[in-house]
Amino acid sequence: MSVEKFNLLSFAGKMKTLHLSWMAFFITFMVWFNMAPLKEAIVGGVGLTLSEWKTLLIINVALTIPARVIIGALTDKFGPRIVYSSLLAICSIPCFMFALADSFTQLVVARFALGCIGAGFVVGIRMVSEWFPPKELGTAEGVYGGWGNFGSAAAAFTLPTIALLFGGEDGWRYAVGITGIMSLLFSVVYFKNTTDTPKGSTYFRPKNLGGMEVTSVKDFYLLLLMKTPMYLALALLNWKLSPQGVSLLSANVALLLYLGLVLLYIYDAYATYTVNKEIFVKPVPEIHQYQFKQVAVLNILYFATFGSELAVISMLPAFFAETFELSMATAGLLAGMYAFMNLMSRPGGGMLSDKFGRKKTLLILTAGLAVGYWCLSLIDASWPVWLAVLAVMACSFFVQSGEGAVFAAVPLIKRRLTGQIAGMTGAYGNVGAVVYLTVYSLVDTSTFFLVIAGTAVLGFVTLLFMQEPSGTITEVREDGSVELIKVT
């Protein structure tokens, strides 16, 4: 761990690593969300139908769920410096493909591949955890997540203007292409200016890439259970693309994909067993054990926090416009306050965790989350607009502070598995978004907010089973010696 003072104005040592990491995350989110602000130009320029546009929105998140799990595992194995740099460089290619696309099919292929860049978040979680001590880790991860997450808002604020500056029907192509250039160039910057750990520290790696390690038979079955919703979310996306949804896929292709998901789950379960088969023969020494239920609880909480954030950002502008009879420009500006809170709220959640403890902070924030969404369910045309905006901002504080508090705990479970744990927890955020947006398509807005509040209550109940991270994490160096990593 680097021991110099935590100073956001510094650009040296651990602070340099933090700043470069949130910048990398910022760029990945700009690239990932570079499409939505340019809707009218893309629809008009390529000649898309509304159904085809909605399909692109679905495709944009489809690959992110498995990508976060896979990228998390690669990060643990090869280190965040190489993985983040490679991801930024490789994903610039489909970004350029999207900018140059002339047909719906080309847009779909490029957008599907670009879903991978949404996995960049989990890489930085491992990088930051290597550089900061436990007493600063929540704050550092909160800054990383909150400031990087603002890349989506930055895309909304800047890309339409950039498109107008270039002008013409191809202005959107230049705007999208610029984000690809940013990604490619920053991949070089990140590779040349970061290291996986401070000098003299050990980077602990998992035994293999076949699956997540657990340390008890009970945890093995809980891991298989927690994998199931990710596959169900992919099945739900498949259903949306099938003839029962937007009809992008034929019935036969959709059926083959359902079968493929089943076979993939079976293979995944077998690979996980292969990694963990020794636990069925002899127990893992207590000093090397960790509790997977900690991961399961954080998964559920991120489902409710980041999952709801993605869903609410998608529907809030239209909700304001319809409820208060506002122009889309005004409604979009007011709804943007929800995302704007990320700059302060997510670091705030991490800072509160550092100061008052992980579990206590999560309990308070999750309770606030439930109450916040219940309040949003009451908003109607009789409310003053300013009060509705205030309620949205208050709710978003608990949502995004909760996200910061979740990832203040993730790196304190098992160091060498941090990328995989972050990947799974991050994927649950995308699973939540898929589920909530599906619910939104089936019910009225008030019920939609109440459903989110209900899942927050479920998260609060599961939190009661979580244990406050304490003591040390035991890891084994390559030479066989043991290192005890403090988590408090």
Please characterize this protein's 3D structure.
By secondary structure, the protein is an all-alpha fold. Among the domains are: 1-203, Growth Hormone, Chain: A, CATH 1.20.1250; 217-288, no CATH class. The protein is 72% helix and 2% strand. It is built from 19 helices and 2 strands. It has helices at 13-32, 39-46, 50-62, 64-78, 80-100, 104-114, 120-131, 134-149, 151-166, 171-193, 217-241, 251-276, 292-324, 328-340, 342-356, 358-376, 385-409, 418-440, 445-463, and strands at residues 472-476, 482-486. It has a two-stranded antiparallel ribbon with strand order 1-2. Helix 5 (80-100) packs antiparallel against helix 7 (120-131) and helix 13 runs antiparallel to helix 17 (385-409).
List keywords for this structure.
488 residues, mainly alpha, Growth Hormone, Chain: A, two-stranded antiparallel ribbon, 2% strand, globular
In summary, what is this structure?
This protein has 488 residues and is mainly α. Helices cover 72% and strands 2% of the residues. A hairpin with a 5-residue loop joins strand 1 and strand 2 (482-486).
Shape: globular
Gap between N and C termini: 14 Å
CATH superfamily of one domain: MFS general substrate transporter like domains
Number of strands: 2
CATH fold-level label of one domain:
Growth Hormone, Chain: A
Class computed from helices, strands and strand pairing: mainly alpha
Number of helices: 19
Are there runs of 5+ residues with pLDDT below 50, and where? none
Largest sheet: 2 strands, antiparallel
Computed over alpha carbons, the radius of gyration is 22 Å
